[in-house]
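hiii so um. not sure if this is the right channel but i have a protein structure encoded as tokens and i wanna go backwards to a sequence. like what aa goes where. can anyone help
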């Protein structure tokens, strides 16, 4: 793997020049949202300054150009995820909307009372609550895939959860709260052996490692633009073509129809357009394509290797702190370091460390069932991206020691 030129990478991010409370910004909240390279920022200028138009139905030049750029991004995403066809790529508002799409389109058509959906204990609320809302209405059962004390999914228990009524597995590829990398390929095989589908929440995987949806054999795979150096307001649902084709639409409106009539049945557009009702976030989609191109230029394997070094260094530095406990000690982790400190509230640490220019996240990370299982309400979480440096990790660890000294 070629090494990552972190100075060059940093040069692409104007926000990294900011001072926070008179100190250089050390941004370690990348799992919540990553920062944006200037190429992506410029994509908005270019779009609104040069070819802003509604897509697909226009016959004029601007509409043609906007459509080409928008559909070009679909192809970029296809390549990025290793999907077979670009019609398997549906643009959404983000991971949350992608999962809600699967719940409402596939779930409503396929789940009945007595059916079972397996949801992992490691999930973000966005891969729990849509299933709970639907289960209330349709009367299927949610079963939880347990984790061990390291925050690793228990695969034996996972296998044992399957019955002839299991229809779907909902699991993330990488946990946003602990950084655990889940064996989704193996989990998919087990699901398929039992005639169930698997939906993989890839929000925290896509920024940190190469993803190949066909190798995983994921039936559905979701991610968000803003966690992979792209803008907010856009995300992706990958779905196998035959599944998407069989699913009813979930939102109605323009773009998603073939013909509309009061006299005959309204008919729907082919996939992926059937699932893209209304004017999409055109500029955001195009800018997401620019972000993925940027990742491609840096190289996802180089990013992965660099972040592994950052995580290792950070883990080593904070483990020296007395009374600090790392949550999530899986052998295979990506991007995230979560911890609690005896005698110091996460919230206080977060506020005070910000005074020293360091941005980390504190709270439940939208994973309350996981944190409750570990007996905590909140953790501190440092999370890494391509532009972070080993020096920043040291600044963070020094600042953390100082802050803990202040609150204890
Ligand atoms: N899943 C995971 C694992 C996440 O980390 C997040 C964002 N924290 C989401 C889903 C939700 O993503 P979004 O808010 O962009 O829809």
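sure thing!! here u go:
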């Amino acid at each position: 793997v070629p090494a990552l030129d972190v100075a060059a990478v940093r040069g692409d991010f104007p926000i990294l020049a900011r001072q926070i409370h008179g100190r250089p910004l050390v941004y370690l909240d990348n799992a919540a949202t990553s920062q944006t390279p200037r190429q992506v920022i410029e994509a908005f200028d270019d779009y609104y300054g040069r070819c802003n138009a509604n897509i697909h139905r226009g016959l004029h030049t601007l509409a043609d150009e906007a459509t080409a750029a928008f559909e070009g991004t679909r192809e970029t995403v296809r390549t990025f995820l290793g999907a077979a066809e670009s019609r398997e790529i549906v643009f959404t508002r983000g991971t949350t909307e992608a999962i809600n799409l699967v719940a409402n389109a596939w779930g409503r058509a396929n789940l009945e009372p007595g059916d079972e959906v397996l949801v992992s204990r490691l999930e973000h609320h966005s891969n729990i609550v849509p299933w709970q809302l639907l289960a209330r209405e349709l009367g299927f059962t949610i079963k939880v895939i347990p984790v061990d004390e390291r925050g690793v999914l228990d695969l034996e228990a996972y296998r044992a959860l399957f019955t002839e009524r299991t229809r779907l597995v909902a699991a993330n590829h990488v946990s946003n709260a602990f950084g655990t990398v889940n064996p989704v390929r193996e989990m998919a095989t087990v699901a398929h052996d039992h005639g169930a589908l698997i939906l993989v929440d890839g929000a925290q995987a896509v920024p940190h490692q190469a993803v190949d949806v066909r190798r995983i054999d994921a039936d559905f795979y979701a991610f968000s633009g803003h966690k992979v150096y792209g803008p907010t307001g856009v995300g992706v649902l990958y779905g196998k073509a035959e599944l998407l084709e069989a699913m009813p639409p979930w939102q109605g409106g323009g773009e998603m129809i073939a013909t509309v009539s009061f006299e005959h049945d309204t008919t729907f557009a082919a996939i992926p357009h059937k699932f893209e009702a209304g004017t999409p976030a055109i500029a955001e989609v195009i800018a997401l394509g620019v972000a993925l191109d940027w990742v491609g230029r840096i190289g996802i394997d180089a990013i992965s290797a660099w972040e592994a070094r950052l995580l290792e260094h950070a883990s080593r530095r904070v483990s020296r702190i007395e009374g600090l406990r790392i949550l999530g000690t899986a052998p295979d982790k990506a991007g995230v370091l979560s911890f609690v400190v005896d005698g110091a509230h996460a919230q206080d640490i977060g506020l005070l460390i910000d005074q020293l220019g360091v941005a980390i996240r504190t709270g439940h990370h939208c994973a309350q069932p996981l944190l409750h299982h570990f007996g905590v309400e909140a953790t501190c979480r440092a999370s890494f991206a391509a532009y972070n440096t080993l020096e920043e990790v040291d600044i963070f660890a020094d600042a953390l020691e100082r802050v803990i000294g202040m609150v204890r």
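oh and The two ends are 43 Å apart (CA to CA).
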